Amino acid sequence: MAKLGLIGLGNLGRALGEQLSKASLVVFDRHAAKTLENAVTVASVADVVARSTTVVSCVPDDAAATAVADEVLSAAKPGLLHVSVSTLSPVCATDLERKHQEAGVGFVAAPVFARPENMRAGQASFALSGGDAALRQRAIDEALSHAAPVERCFDFGDDAGRAAAAKLT
Question: What is the pTM of this model?
């Protein structure tokens, strides 16, 4: 069983996946032709969830993030952590955190500051918020530390919308 899952293999998601594949990684993209070397490609979000304890999603906008979160939550099991590295509005991040809490699933918003080439060079930064301090640390330990030095993972606290708001200013 893979511990780490990634949903979204767009330009930035692929670069993130290349970094995360240092760990045991399972990936899914809605475009079936998108795969990643050194990772197991599966057929659905539910397959990623079934094989992971931590799932990272990297999708383009609030609508895609909400759709992915709904699929994650419909397949979620106790103990799952969902980390969204997408650029989300504060309203969306807060709403996703609420949905995850109601389902008993951990959620951390961790918008990424990087272009694909910076991600590949290990120069990404993540602004973490939501959940509690233990969940944010778990997001770093199990996922984000494979993509960036831990000193580039900034903790903005328990409010999931806080990091999104910080990124907008």
Answer: 0.93
